[in-house]
Amino acid sequence: MIKLTTENTVKAVAKCKQLKPRVKFVKDRLFVVYSSNNSNVYHVRFDVKNGEKFGQCECRAAEKGLVCYHIVAGATANIYRQSLKLAK
Ligand SMILES: [Zn+2]
Fold it and tell me: pTM for this one?
């Protein structure tokens, strides 16, 4: 899992805003993100440990330890979902 910080998500956030990939909620902290460039589908997972956020993706960038836009897309959906839960 990759630790998500403000610094290492900057580029991915910009790319995510540009590409606007579709995100589907699967369960808990698991999401499916559809690639904007091709027909690839990535499973994105999240975890929180000691107040720090972690993300995982199946794409090549994430395998290298980089935060990809799939993770950001999933994280955005995750935050949105959490906020809906809190609103109940
Ligand atoms: Zn990815």
Answer: 0.90
